[in-house]
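Following up on my earlier message about zinc ion. Here are the inputs again, as you asked, copied directly from the submission form:
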Amino acid sequence: MLGEGGTALSEFEEAARKFLARGERSVDPKRYRAVIDSLDGDFSAVARDAQKTGEHLVSGNITAASWIARICGMSVTSAADRLCVGSQLESLPKVAAALGSGEISFQSASALCHLHEQLGEKGRLFDEDEMLGFTREYSVSELRKLCHFARHVADPDGFFNDAEESFTRRRLHISQMADGLYVVDGLLDPVSGAAFKTGLDVLAKRKGPEDERTRSQRMADAAGELAMHAMEHGTLPRRHSVKPHLNLTMTLEGLKGELGVPPADLELSLPISTRTAERIACDCTMSRVLLADSMVIDVGRATRTVSAPTRRALRVRDKGCRFPGCDRPVNWSSPHHIIHWTRGGPGNLPNLVLLCYYHHRLVHEGGWQVIKSGREFRFMPPDRVLMRRARGPGLRWAA
Ligand SMILES: [Zn+2]
Ligand SMILES: [Zn+2]
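Thanks, got it. Here's what our run produced:
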């Protein structure tokens, strides 16, 4: 078998080892990639030949893709891709030659092979010369789009059936980990995915030079902001005739920030920090529950920490988040108590300011201070931000 001493494969391995041990590091990346891609095409043909012999059945694997994936350390998707290329190249000699000579990349050849496979009986509509022309002209992602387009033109019913089959794979899982963070994992259909991405992209824009969040952190915050916005504006269906909301339970001592008291308890979550609890409590509906020996003896009337008339006046005055440079409009901002009501701050206009989801968090958890000076608000950064500003951009600590 190939791969043992004195065979073509062992000679190739020896040549590859020599190449890898070369002293000269500079290699033309285009030619180098072309060699790897043509080898990948040959590997696909070898995988296809192995599939034909039914070797995977002998070794107890149901599909050839899972067998190749296991023995070659690949994902099943990558192995299935190679098998598709290996199988389709048998009837696409010009594409096979172009891949073998390094003229087209493996990814481009793969896009053409998948299209040819999908066309099935309508494969005669596949014009190799025309498709190779497109491959030379377009990037891989453009070619993939073009293949989808060609598939739809040649076989609209098949395209629809494939799309419906893909649709059944949609899923979304959300679960809490031991440290309280939530892990989200899923697949969305093309329309929902595009809508979700568009919504998050708009909310995830960097908010000025002070915004140090990474792109993925901003996307995570955007997902939270989107969900909070839908809940706060009552656009979600009611549950047991009540608007969906978060339930936060904490003791009076906890609200006052006294030492040694138990943390606030957020429904469906692990206990949260006092600062986060304060942020949520800044604008909420509150009920006082009186306990005696763990027995509820009185439940007070639910009251809003910011009354409806004050909220309306605040919305007119601030028109949106008041953090300098922030463009979140009024519907995407909520009231913040400059002196928190748990420390005696009044729920009136002079003590309130509208802040967006991100800047509200920056003030409570991020250590920024809001100072009212006349009609204006000043936002004072914490010491670490001041020190960074003093160092200036591009300067590093001396080693
Ligand atoms: Zn607040
Ligand atoms: Zn803001």
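One observation from looking it over: The first strand starts at residue 171 and ends at 176. Hope that helps, and feel free to reply on this thread.
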